[in-house]
Amino acid sequence: MYKSLIRPVLFKFDPEKVHYFTFDFLRKFCQIPGMPSVLRSRFSVNDKRLEREVFGLKFKNPVGLAAGFDKDAKLFKELSALGFGFIEVGTVTPKPQAGNEKKRLFRLKADAAIINRMGFNNEGVEAMVSRLKKNTNVLIGGNIGKNKLTPNAEAVKDYVFSFDKLFEYVDYFVVNVSSPNTPNLRELQDKEPLKNLLNTLQNRNREHTAPKPILLKIAPDLTEDQLLDIIEIVQETKIAGVIATNTTISREGLKSEAKNEMGGLSGKPLTKRSTEVIRFLSEKSNKSFPIIGVGGIHTAEDAIEKLEAGASLVQLYTGFIYEGPALIKAINKKILEKGL
C-alpha cells in the first residue's frame, strides 16, 4: 500500500516538507490509544533468533534506522514501533544551527536516490538530551558532529562537549567526520586528526565506570590505502567499530535531472560501493571489529549481502523512504529464512 498509494502522493511535494509532515502524522497517529501496538503487530518480527549482541549491547533485531532521519530525537519511540531494532539520532552539534540554505534535499526518482546538503541542521545537544531523558526502552545511538563555525583546530572540543552531555542517555556513540555537507569536515578523516579525536574521546570514555561503545562513521569515497589507515586507527584507539558508509560525493551513472546538485548522495547508487567497503574492512581486519552496514539497502537481499560481506548490523535511511516500513519486516524475515 505504501509504494502504490502513499508514496506517489508524498513524492509530489517538496521532500523536506514531506519529512516534517510525516513526522507530525506519525506522532499524532501514535497518540491514538492502541495505535503503537497496531504498528508493532503489522511491522515487527519478534523472534529470539534475531537478537544480536554487538559491542556489548543487546539488539532485539539487527535492523536499525540510520542517523539523519530523527536528527533531534523527536520521534524515536514512534519509529521503534515500526520494527527497528535500534534508532540512531543526530547528527547533533553542541549549539543549535539552521543548516544550509533551502532547497537542500532532492529526490532522484529515476535512480532511487536522494541528494542532501542539510548541513547538520539541529536544535543542539541540550534539546536532544531533554527528549532522551524520557526514553525507557529504545536502544539509541548518538551521532555527534561539530558546529559549522567551529574551526577544525577546535573540533575536538565540540565532540567532547556533546559526548559528555549525551553520555547518560545513549547506548552508543557515532563520530561523524564523513558528512560532505559541513565545510572541511572530511579533513578530520585524515590519519593524525582522526587519531587525536578518537583518542581524546576514548580517554574521556574511560573516566566512566561503564564506558560506552564509540563507532566511527566513514565515507564511501575513501581509497584502499585510506581504508587500511582506518583499520589501523580503529585497532590503535580501541574504539568499538565502524559504520560503513555515509553518503557519497560520486555522481557516476546517475540519470535524474537533479544529479548535479551539491551534497551527499544516498540510495541505490551506493549499494555496491558500501558493500565493497564493508567487505574490505572485514577481510583486511580479520573481522577484528564490528561493522554496521548502511548505504543503498532497498531490498531484503541488499541487507543480506551486507551481512554476508561482514556487517554485524544494518541501517536504513533512503531505502526506508522509498520502500516504506514493510522493508524492515522483510529484512528480518529474510535473516530468519537464511539462518543468519
SSE map:
Elements: H1 2-10, H2 15-31, H3 35-43, E1 52-54, E2 57-59, E3 63-65, H4 76-80, E4 86-92, E5 105-108, E6 113-116, H5 125-132, E7 140-144, H6 155-166, E8 172-176, H7 191-205, E9 214-218, H8 224-237, E10 241-244, E11 264-267, H9 271-284, E12 291-294, H10 300-309, E13 313-316, H11 318-323, H12 326-338
Parallel strand pairs: 3-4, 3-13, 4-7, 7-8, 8-9, 9-10, 10-12, 12-13
Antiparallel strand pairs: 1-2, 5-6, 6-11
Helix pairs in contact: 6-7, 7-8, 8-9, 9-10, 10-12
Domain Dihydroorotate dehydrogenase catalytic: 50-337
Family: Belongs to the dihydroorotate dehydrogenase family. Type 2 subfamily.
Binding site for substrate: 71, 116-120, 176, 181, 246-247
Roughly what percent helix? 25-40%
The CATH architecture is Alpha-Beta Barrel
CATH superfamily: Aldolase class I
Shape: globular
What is the CATH class? Alpha Beta
Q: What is the topology, as strand order, of the major beta sheet? A: 3-4-7-8-9-10-12-13
What composes the largest sheet?
8 strands, parallel, barrel
The N- to C-terminal Cα distance equals 29 Å
Low-pLDDT runs:
none
Number of domains in the coordinates?
Answer: 1
Helix-and-strand structural type: alpha/beta
